[in-house]
Amino acid sequence: QVQVVESGGGLVQPGGSQTLSCRVSGMIFSIGTMGWYRQASGKQRDLVAIITPGGSTDYADSVKGRFAISRDYGPNTVLLQMNSLKPEDTGVYYCHSRIYSSMSRWEDHWGQGTQVTVSS
Fold this sequence. Notes:
- This protein is mainly β.
- The chain contains no helices and 11 strands.
- The strands form 2 sheets. Strands 2, 4, 5, 6, 9, 10 and 11 form a 7-stranded mixed beta sheet that branches. It has a 4-stranded antiparallel beta sheet with strand order 1-3-8-7, with no helix packed on it.
- A hairpin with a 4-residue loop joins strand 9 and strand 10.
- About 25% of the residues are buried.
């Protein structure tokens, strides 16, 4: 089995910073692309940032220059550093990981989500 566990959400004031962390564990042979997605209330889940195994990154236009994604291969962790937060960044943030599992296939795994609320 594979577990994807996020942490670090909460309430933050506009202009503030917050870091989200996601750790992947379990029966994993290899991890491919990892990323963060955001779902605002009543809206679809959208990509925020992704990072490839080689370290290449891509961001949604709305967060470029403010957010930074990174990964630590040792503990299979991906981080999302969020700066200059805006109220429109509010939503549930989900961690996604592409994993080559013990079933000898690539699989998509999601975390349970962590709420980020940007408000004064």
